[in-house]
Amino acid sequence: MTAAGWRALLLSLCAIAAAIPVLEIFLQYGGPMRSSYVGQWGDTVGASSRAFHLEVLSIDPGHGADLAGIRSGDLIDIRADTPLERFWLFGQPPTGRPVSVRVTRGNGVRSATIVPETITPLRLRLLTPIWFGYMWIALFAGIIAWRRSSDPQMRSLCLLLLAYAFWENTNQHYISSESLPILILAAFANALGALAVGFWAAC
């Protein structure tokens, strides 16, 4: 590929990498009734030794999972949930979008409905500088692409910055959607974190 071709490709990727955090800031601040579109469960979940189950690791008092009666140590059976709801269970659901889950506690099984709440102001204050940081990364990658796209080492550095930006921007805890293809695309882009290590070695 010619230097001009590399420049066009890299600058296009830089534009996308810069646009994603802008979209994420909008989703956090521009949701329904001026609340965050990206909701919070009010719990953390992790892998379980039981197949197709997530273990509830912690609960935030007064939030959606707590109000639904979920407790630490409960197991959530994901088999009854749609693929879209499974993505939400591993990441962030839209604010106010109820999700029904089957909960196992000891020998008992019951249904619960979790209504995700809007993101807290503290979380917004902590995350917003991070998104601006990702925009800066895209800007630096763009400067490298514009000025040094003919240099293979500089192209590797630019690709490293872009892979890192895509990896972080598509973290499942930053993004939510009611479209399954968008969440699948984000999960695919999130896998670029492994490539960032390879580009780092090349640099």
Largest sheet properties:
5 strands, antiparallel
Q: Can you list the strand order of the major beta sheet?
A: 2-3-4-5-6
Strand content: 15-25%
Poorly predicted runs of 5 or more residues: none
What percent of the residues sit in helical stretches (DSSP H or I)?
Answer: 40-55%
Task: Say how many strands there are.
Answer: 7
Rg for CA atoms: 20 Å
Can you walk me through this structure?
The chain is elongated. The chain contains seven helices and seven strands; from the N terminus they run H-E-E-E-H-E-H-E-E-E-H-H-H-H. Helices cover 53% and strands 16% of the residues. The protein has 203 residues and is of the alpha+beta class. The model has no long low-confidence stretch (mean pLDDT 86). Strands 2-3-4-5-6 form a five-stranded antiparallel β-sheet. The protein has helices at 3-29, 64-67, 83-90, 121-148, 152-169, 180-190, 192-202, and strands at 39-40, 43-47, 53-59, 75-77, 99-105, 108-114, 117-118.
